[in-house]
Write a structure and sequence with these properties.
Layout lengths: L1 E6 L3 E8 L2 E9 L18 E6 L3 H15 L4 E2 L5 E2 L2 E2 L10 H14 L3 E6 L2 E7 L5 E8 L1 H11 L19 H25 L7 E4 L3 H5 L7 E2 L3 H9 L2
Length: 241
């Protein structure tokens, strides 16, 4: 059995699998001091632990210690590189591409085996473009929905939004709605723009969406867009087979 862990800036998602069968899965607060929650999986006797980490070295060290103590194995951390299989990085310095983006790119190509756009709607909203020859040709990074709201709140006086409101593309009838919906519309506009660019010369749009804000965006997107909540975890198996 293998444990795969996707450590983001705010939370870590883990999955225990046996071959192609998912046995258990869950979430851990990235900044928790004690990763001993993983120890509950000791009875499963996992033989490997694969990790994607964008939260820094301090978190990585805590995970290494927890994994070694619980399972007696060394955690394997995926690293961005020039290529994996057919997929070639589009970065001038491939090792500086965020590992979560790189793993999502690998899984996106594996899903379609064709040109596609890989969207991760998390703390940041990232879009990465892969051509029909499996070459990553670059991407975009913008603040995610909550980060946009925080930036607006920090730079203005008296502008606030109700966090319980569900964002939509409707015009705001009050300041709270205008802020929430405006930030949502900005993110959606970039995704839609990317879909139009990809459509040129293609029979269909190929886009895969992951991340915590994916479900709210999917409501506004064509049903051709594929939702894969565990895209980064899927990429771990490709980077560290």
């Amino acid at each position: 059995m293998i444990i795969d862990i996707d450590i983001g800036n705010t939370r870590a998602k883990w999955r225990l699998s046996d071959g192609n069968e998912i046995i258990e899965c869950g979430l851990i607060d990235t900044q928790c001091e004690n990763w001993a929650a993983l120890a509950a999986l000791r009875s499963r006797q996992p033989g490997r632990v694969r990790v994607s980490n964008v939260a820094g070295e301090a978190v990585a060290q805590r995970v290494r210690g927890a994994v070694a103590k619980a399972f007696g194995v060394e955690a394997e951390f995926a690293l961005s590189c020039e290529s994996v299989g057919q997929v070639v990085s589009g970065y001038d310095e491939p090792e500086k591409l965020g590992i979560d983006r790189w793993l999502a790119i690998l899984a996106g190509w594996d899903l379609y085996r064709d040109g596609c756009v890989v969207v991760d709607a998390g703390s940041a909203l990232t879009l990465d473009f892969v051509d029909a020859k499996a070459r990553h040709v670059g991407g975009y990074i913008i603040p995610g929905h909550k980060m946009m709201l925080n930036a607006l709140f920090g730079g203005t006086s008296g502008v606030r939004a109700n966090p319980s409101l569900k964002p939509s593309v409707n015009f705001g009838a009050n300041t709270s709605e205008a802020v929430q919906n405006g930030c949502f519309a900005m993110a959606l506009a970039l995704i839609e723009k990317s879909m139009v660019s990809t459509r040129e010369g293609c029979a269909s749009i190929k886009m895969v969406l992951t991340g915590g804000d994916a479900e709210s965006l999917l409501v506004q997107l064509p049903d051709t867009v594929v939702h894969r909540p565990d895209l980064v975890l899927d990429g771990l198996a490709l980077a560290l087979p």
